[in-house]
């Protein structure tokens, strides 16, 4: 099963997937970002599907259709979002139903959205964590596949807490993707 990673940040989770031996076939981003260089350094084809040509009001459906075309052309079977900065629209879930995964830096359903680490700190929680889940049209709401708790320390700021969470994500997300791929291979082979 061919795997694509969607990323918009530093690409440290992408790196961890490669380190874990996952066969990443393609990295797609929505903007110039460090993840492009990380992909290049690991010999992974990187494609930018920029948001710029999709109108001032951002035509999310058209953007998603373009992204899906890129994924389908690369014969991708499983999509792993790792800090991807664009919310995908229905066409992604039509084409890749049950085959888009996401990692989120909080214990969902707590702290969904783009500011999960800031929100956890602002609420004064003592424990947060990360969640790997199947992505659905509703952001950060799909079925949970794996979760792990991470302590919040008294002198944490957003950066230190996010880095502690990412340390866990770099292990948990590749493990979970591997399990999903093995399960899919078993189903195709008729052994599961
Ligand atoms: C990860 O912590 C991931 O959970 C988060 O972006 C980071 C990517 O790290 N995703 C979200 O916040 C999505 N809502 P990286 O750029 O170092 O790979």
Structure description:
The chain is an alpha/beta fold. It has a single domain (3-189), classed as Rossmann fold (3-Layer(aba) Sandwich). Helix content is 40%, strand content 20%. It has helices at 12-19, 34-41, 60-73, 90-95, 116-123, 158-189, and strands at 3-6, 24-29, 45-48, 78-81, 100-104, 127-134, 144-151. Strands 3-2-1-4-5-6-7 form a 7-stranded mixed beta sheet. β4, α4 and β5 (100-104) form a beta-alpha-beta unit. The mean pLDDT is 96. The site of glycinamide ribonucleotide (GAR) has 16 residues, from α1, β5 and α6.
User: How many helical elements?
Assistant: 6
What is the structural class?
Answer: alpha/beta
List each distinct ligand once. glycinamide ribonucleotide
Give me the CATH architecture, please.
3-Layer(aba) Sandwich
- CATH topology: the name is Rossmann fold
Q: Major sheet: size, sense and barrel closure? A: 7 strands, mixed
CATH-assigned homologous superfamily: Formyl transferase, N-terminal domain
N-to-C CA distance: 16 Å
Q: Mean pLDDT score, rounded?
A: 96
Whole-number radius of gyration?
16 Å
**Subunit organisation of the chains:** single chain
Unreliable segments of 5+ consecutive residues: none
Q: What fraction, in percent, of the residue positions are helical?
A: 25-40%
- The shape is globular
Looking across the biggest beta sheet, what order are the strands in?
3-2-1-4-5-6-7
Sequence of secondary-structure elements: EHEHEHEHEHEEH
């Amino acid at each position: 099963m061919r795997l694509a990673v969607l990323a918009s940040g530093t690409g440290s989770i992408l790196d961890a997937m490669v380190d874990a031996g996952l066969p990443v076939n393609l990295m797609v981003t929505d903007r110039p970002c460090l993840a492009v260089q990380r992909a290049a350094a690991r010999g992974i084809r990187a494609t930018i599907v920029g948001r710029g040509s999709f109108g001032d009001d951002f035509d999310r459906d058209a953007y998603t259709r373009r992204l899906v075309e890129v994924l389908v052309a690369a014969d991708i079977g499983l999509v792993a979002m790792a800090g991807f900065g664009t919310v995908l629209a229905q066409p992604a879930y039509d084409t890749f139903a049950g085959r888009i995964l996401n990692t989120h830096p909080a214990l969902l359903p707590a702290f969904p959205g783009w500011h999960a680490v800031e929100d956890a700190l602002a609420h004064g929680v003592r424990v947060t964590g990360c969640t790997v889940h199947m992505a659905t049209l509703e952001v950060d709401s799909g079925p949970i596949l794996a979760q792990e708790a991470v302590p919040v320390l008294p002198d944490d700021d957003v950066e230190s807490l996010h880095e502690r969470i990412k340390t866990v994500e770099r292990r948990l997300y590749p493990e979970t993707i591997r399990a999903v791929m093995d399960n899919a291979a078993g189903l195709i082979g008729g052994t599961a």
